[in-house]
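Support request, please re-run this one:
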Amino acid sequence: MDNIEVPEYFICPISLQIMKDPVTAITGITYDRESIEQWLLKGQNTSCPVTKQPLPTDTDLTPNHTLRRLIQTWCTDNASLGVDRIPTPKSSLDKLHFLKLVKELQHPADSKMKALRDLELLAAKTERNRKYMLEAGVPKAMLSFIVNCFKENSVNGLEEALSVLYFIRIPPAEAKLFPKENDLIIKSLLWVLGCEFKTQVMIKTHAVLVLKTIIESASFILLERLEPQFFEMIVGFLKQGTRVMTQQGMNSALHVLSDACPWGRNRLMMVKSGAVSALIELELGSPEKRTTELILGILFHLCSCADGRAEFLSHKAGLAVVTKRIMKVSPAANDRAVLILALISKFSATNLVVHEMVEVGIVQKLSMLLQVDCAAYLKEKAMEILRSHCDEWTKFPCIDKTLFTRYNIK
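Re-run finished. Output below.
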């Protein structure tokens, strides 16, 4: 195949592969259907890749049957040289097809399960299918199905429904269209997290991804009314670690907690649910950068209340793991870590805590922060912490007193 000269007009300008389903855009250029549809559905691409002329995302793509037959004939003629024949593409699905599948979800169990499986397969196939599914209201239908499963305490079809939502990814604008149902949707997704499944890592990851989308789009009123069970389920999910979730699922659960943090009532419920200890344990596993940033961000919010600081200090690794992350992860992590230490230093610095700060290397880390290129306010925070306890810290033989004189810290 490598030694065969393929006619230039058989090649898609985007994929540079032989076209399987050639379609012609309004600009007169022919592309492989899958390639041009993916190009247009990315959102930022609004022009023809070849001519650079405007090309709307809903533009008509005309099947080039003549070119397809020429390609098929050429493939057949060169079959002895290892060229595979291009099959005739199936008729394109449209919005109407997905509307019919949504209606079938109201039918008896067998028809309902077949419709769910068809939707899952089609959602996994192409961006075009996912676009039509959004237009046909499939996300709302899937959420309604999950709510009904919750009401009937039935798990049949949950895996397929959550998989469809995973592939479609509910747009935030659409998630805001059903605010009245959000409370029940959230309860239903929490119920899913509490169920046991054979493929629970995938199912629970998909469930928490949907929950993240709903919480991101939820109203302030709903976020203010979250109940203790909500945080108990999310923290319990995080405590189980990779046994029940992927890295993507973990980050989504952390996003959910982060979005709920601005309300003091929520922070207190998180602390009571064991969030502080769970977050520290997660961080001890040296997760990826984004996970660390999320963990430190949530810990900062929780340490803004006395109960949160008490829980943080009661964990033997709390101060040590936060100190270790300074200048090891990212500027965002530096910011959160230093602010956590500033809160502890200002409001919870007992003699035992001040001594522990020396033991875990906080003095050295903060002095190093003063020497590197970082935000001015972070250096000011570091100076503030060092200044607050310099009298006590200079009594330790392991502390280099010149660190304080060098920066005129008294």
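The longest strand covers residues 22-24. The chain has a mean pLDDT of 89.
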